[in-house]
Amino acid sequence: MKLYGIANCDTVKKARAWLTAHAHQVAFHDFRKQGVDAAWLREVAAQTGWQALLNTRGTTWRRLPETEKSAAGDEAGAIALMLAQPSVIKRPVLERGGRYHLGFAEEQYQALFGE
User: Fold this and answer.
1) Which residue out of 3, 9, 89, 102 is catalytically annotated?
2) Cα 2–42–107 angle (5° rounding)?
3) Which domains are seen in the chain, by residue range?
């Protein structure tokens, strides 16, 4: 099991705290320190949909020039943007049993882990 995100993201912090509190061992991959792999992004996008993976609600997205936002209007453009700006990836991304789960809500994790 692996959790992907950015260490100082509040939602990532909540997910990590929940996993620790419920005794789930999870490796953490920090996009800023360890980077993002294009093949991994395509794999996650294939499961979740690239639109769901692209975080258009965050500060990074809002600060982007309209030309960059427009270029992210299809999967190839969105993946290129996520590679260049990992902060626009929806986070956290939890990889568990070969499946990817986006975001964090306590109810979501309780259902996922059967708790």
Assistant:
1) 9
2) 45
3) 2-113 (3.40.30.10)
